[in-house]
Sequence to fold (573 residues):
Amino acid sequence: MEYALKTTGITKKFGRQKVLSGVDINVPKGAVYGLIGKNGAGKTTLLRIITGLTSSASGEVKMNTPHQKVSAIIEAPGYYDEFTVMDNMKSQCRIRGIDIDEGKLSEILAMVNLTEAKNKKASKLSLGMKQRLGLAMALVGDTELVILDEPLNGLDPQGIIDIRNIILNLNKEKGITFIISSHLLGELSKVATVYSFLNNGVIVKEISQEEVKSSGKVTTSISVSDVKKLAIIFDEMNVEYTVETPTQITAYKELSIEELLPKMQAVDVQLHELSVNQESIESIYTNIMNDGAGK
Amino acid sequence: MGNLLKNDLCRLVKNKLYWGVVIVFAFMTFYTSFQARKQCDSVDDLLGAMLFYLEIAVSAFVPLFVVSEYKSGVVKNKIIAGFSRLQIYVSLLITSVVSALGILVAWVIAYYPYALALYGTKFGYDHITNADRWEVILAKACLVVVCATFAVLVSTVISRKSVTIVILVVGTLFYYTFFLPNILMTRKDLVLEDVSVEQMDESTYAVTYTATEDEEEVDNSHKRKVLETVDNVMFCGHEMLIDYYNMEKVHEYILWDSVAAVVYAGFGLVVFKLKDFK
Fold:
């Protein structure tokens, strides 16, 4: 698969402390690449190295995207407080050497729902609007790769939904590749197509959304009137299970009501509830972090 | 680099605070010239005025401009857009110098029409040519450049508006209230040579002379050397207030100012390159 960005062997030390050790990531073109890790894992440092804000002790960053088409918001968006939203957009055009086309800039502002605020001073914007302004500035000049460091931090629920929808739209409609670092797994799982887990400066796992779905374990939680009789049915079906309570059992397989109901009716077992659970990105993260802690 | 400069200059032009400083400074020029009109009797007498206010204006504005650039996070945008730190710093430095020179231009514009209206074309010192007068203004421009370069350096090191402004303004006040009087007290007397008086008409005489420092006077010479060295390395050119009719001194100050500006710019660049922009 064609890549948008690749790093090999990125290492960074702050004094004697190693923050990143040999980090390799591979960001496919058109992906929403979720960089996951707890606070202090090295996410921001890695993004700062990728964007050239910090140098690394060793390693290489390869971009398959022209530098002019890469934008980033690291830690906080950069804009002039004294300028209006539109003036900040124009300033970004000047920095990037792009002709100022107010029509095109207005289109970008519309994409991030800032049309009505375009003549407002940046200092007067809410936190969510400032984040959207940063995103709009990042989109100036037909951007192909956008790097966002914790873009949802400090936002209210509506702000989170807005940013998430903007990212999804831009990724689907314009094919923009995103690298997003976050510790908000639930939110990240709604947009990311590839996940990368960073723990103590090391990439522990890189996994696509499809792989999560295909390799993730599926369990079926069943609530019944008689667990013992259902356990006998599972033994006959060769299904692994765990008895949770006298009325609750978990089977390590996806089971349907159509498949189970006739067998349960035959032994007079009443079904109260059945739910199929896909192993989530949260549980993968937890397992990885626990393994890391164990080591 | 051109894009950066265009953006930084555009930001300067759109900065209302800057135009406020320029207007206030122009009014200050009128005011102090008006106040000094009784002690002065020629355009040349007023030429040395306003250095103090010029330095205060530059010391107050440049940190606001530079530190807000750092705090805004736009520097990160510039780095991400692929510009080197050298390019970013040079662009910011040029813009700061332009802002300081703009204040100087406000002085020239506010001062000359007023002085010419007050004294006509009476310039006061016959041994100074018009070219010399432009050199004195050039020396002032060099002083302003050093002042701006130093302000950018301090702003880059401290990165806090209020602290930087206090340091620079207090430093300037300290210079004028303590350092400058010490230099004045230790200066050597001038010896006038080749004095000739020519009667122009019934009531006007033209006096020509060569002024040199009294080589035999050695009192305070060590103290003066120390003060002169500090004056040269730091904000030099202040003695123009007294010695501006001594063109040799003016040339010396231009040279020292140029060297000091390069040194401050170099230090500033080193600090900027090491700076971690959050």
Notes: The mean pLDDT of chain B is 79. The radius of gyration of chain B is 21 Å.
